[in-house]
Amino acid sequence: MSGVQHHRATLKKNHKSFKSRHSTKGQIKTVQKGSQGLSKVVTIVPLSSSIDAKSVVTSIIGSVDQQAEVNSPGITSVYLDRFKQNLTFVIPPASFLAIIDSAKVADFVVFALSATEEVDKFGELCIRTIESQGVSSVFSVISNLNDVDTIKKQTEVKSSLSSYFSHFFPSSDKPFTISNSAESLNLCRSLCQKYPKGINWRDERPYILADKFYWQDDSNSENGGYLAVEGVVRGKGIDPNRLIHIPDFGDFQVAKIAKRQFQRHSVLKEDISNESEFPDSSQDDVDPFINIDADMMSDEEEYDMTAEPSIEQGVRLDDHLYFRDEYKEDLDQKLKSRKIPKGMSSYQARWILDDDEFSDEDISDNEEMEDENGEGDFGISKPVASEYEPTDAGEIEMDNFVDLAADEEELQLKEFRQRARDNLDFPDEIELSPTVSAKDRMIRYRGLKNLRSCTWDADEKDSRAPEEWKRLLRVANYKGTRTRVLKESLQNARIDVGTPVTIFIKCDRNLVELLGQAPLILYGLLQYENKMVVLNFAIQQSTEYEEPIAAKETLIIQCGPRRYTANPIFSQAGKSSNNVYKYQRFIYPGESATATVIAPIMFGNVPTLFFKKVDQELRLAATGSIFNADHSRILAKRSVLTGHPFKIHKRVVTIRYMFFNRDDIMWFKAVPLFTRMGNSGYIKEPLGTHGYFKATFDRKIHAQDTVAMALYKRVWPRVATLWDGNI
């Protein structure tokens, strides 16, 4: 006995995780195998019209010498004795939405290729969409190979189809020949023994593939009953306080969740059919917007935007207002009656408070303190000696400037704009009509010295902001909130993964009739995931869609389990220190951008697809993923006014065709100018009454150069609406 060694008693624990009373270590391993030991879901996707999906399922089951009645379309569950595994085969209807929805919930997707028929347009749309939306694990099978004449041709066909399929899924296995019993057995073995890769966004939430659904009458219910859905909880544990999302039908509250008895071939067997979980007072509501009461509305710091500035004050430049002449005249009149100390200029006197007083002996003549260059008070240029030299067109000082005749002016304007259309220098260029005031048309625009470093208040008041803007959910830290919500969802889950349940959903009775024959899938939402936010997507146009996509164009967006109709706003991709980004009118093939909509928040890097309806068909226009949910992201639409150099003398240039009256020039005088060749300048003074003005640049400009002024206004995202599924 002295040679026998014993472990210390401190190492003996009765509550080790792998030593429960109900399960042995081998049983727990079996539960964790595959998709938590559940019946593995296998979706069959035919890529050609000649393929019979039912025969594919029959061949897989028949490879282990078993038979089953296969529902096509429908769901077929079978227990394979040879591999001791439950498989659930899903054959969706010949509908695009039903196919891609069935692929989302599948542990394995089996693509069926035809040896005698090429993949049709519909099949290629399906495989591209499934690849883009995220897929767990995939296999491919070849049917009708015996219809090919010779063995040599059969080998060529298999090689060609394998090359085609590897283009979409490079790491997948070679295609299985479904007519060959040995290869069918290998496929069946892979389905039963291989661990599915999973889909991150799906596996972070609870979801249920419905075994059946029906209407359960209940006189205590507001709608006279509930939609009862039977199935097994997958992904993560479910909490009855969270909402349930049914694709294309919306979000619904849970009345209760009843546990059912485990199936015959499950590892753990116990009767829990009498247990039910009910929501409590913390259950989420179905209102997609934040409820704001009167007290919250009065809280200006959190909900009220800053006051909208008066448009009569003047143009805005980098969040500063430049006053109009009438305001300047009132201020000048006030300064004339003010006592100014000796040695102080009129500009410095503007910073003196009204209650400051000075003695008469400190007063100095205001005119003696003007700048040497003739720049007057308040940024308005005073008349100075012209810097021009005499030219063939004559001296162009303001006193000697003569406007052209109206007919001649109109003719030259048409010629200039025709040349501009032939050689478009600025994609954002707009043309102003000579009869329209630029000040009135561009009243909401502002000037910016630098888009990347400007100051722009994200909460400034704007009458064109969406009505729902104040009721949107604001997420300060998107990644941090996602981590917290996922952690809390695990802690608050009342029903574990793998539990058969019956979920009773609060809804109208007619929903049962609208669900149709497509497999019913329920997704459990995380906290806040029914609330509207400003959702930003990283988007890239599909290589198969060659036409440019216009901003505000109606698109059908699929984001995880949701599909909604939206008019996204496009902006530049990347990150900016001031969170101001240039609005883009189009995105083109191969170009990356950011799409912004007001839509329900989804946590995580969820794949997003953008479809466009063309001739009653859906085309995959772009793909992307959720970038963040930042409401302070400012989308600045850029409009460029261009002018033509009329007279050039050194750095001083006379510009025409940018404005057509004197008042517009004075209004936009504070906004800087630039040229196509990289020069920068500013407006000095107007000339005449037809919109000519003097401008000074940093260096002499070329006669063929184009002078431009960039103006910006904020563009607000639009609210997305639930798509009804009608193509």
UniProtKB/TrEMBL annotation:
Keyword Nucleus applies: yes
Q: Which UniProt keywords apply?
A: Nucleus, Ribosome biogenesis
Q: Where is this region: Disordered?
A: 1-32, 364-384
Query: Which Pfam families does the annotation name?
Result: AARP2CN, RIBIOP_C, Tsr1_G-like
Q: Its GO CC terms?
A: nucleolus; preribosome, small subunit precursor
Spell out the Acidic residues composition-biased ranges.
Answer: 364-375
Q: Name one GO molecular function term.
A: GTPase activity
Domain named Bms1-type G is located at: 38-197
- Compartment(s) where it occurs, according to its Swiss-Prot or TrEMBL record: Nucleus, Nucleolus
Q: Where is the composition biased (Basic residues)?
A: 1-24
Q: Which InterPro entries does this entry report, sorted A to Z?
A: AARP2CN, Bms1/Tsr1, BMS1_TSR1_C, G_Bms1/Tsr1_dom
- What main location does UniProt list? nucleus
Reply yes or no: does the keyword Nucleus apply. Answer: yes
GO biological process per UniProt = endonucleolytic cleavage of tricistronic rRNA transcript (SSU-rRNA, 5.8S rRNA, LSU-rRNA); maturation of SSU-rRNA from tricistronic rRNA transcript (SSU-rRNA, 5.8S rRNA, LSU-rRNA)
Sequence similarity: Belongs to the TRAFAC class translation factor GTPase superfamily. Bms1-like GTPase family. TSR1 subfamily.
Q: What is this protein called?
A: Bms1-type G domain-containing protein
Give the organism the record lists: Magnusiomyces paraingens
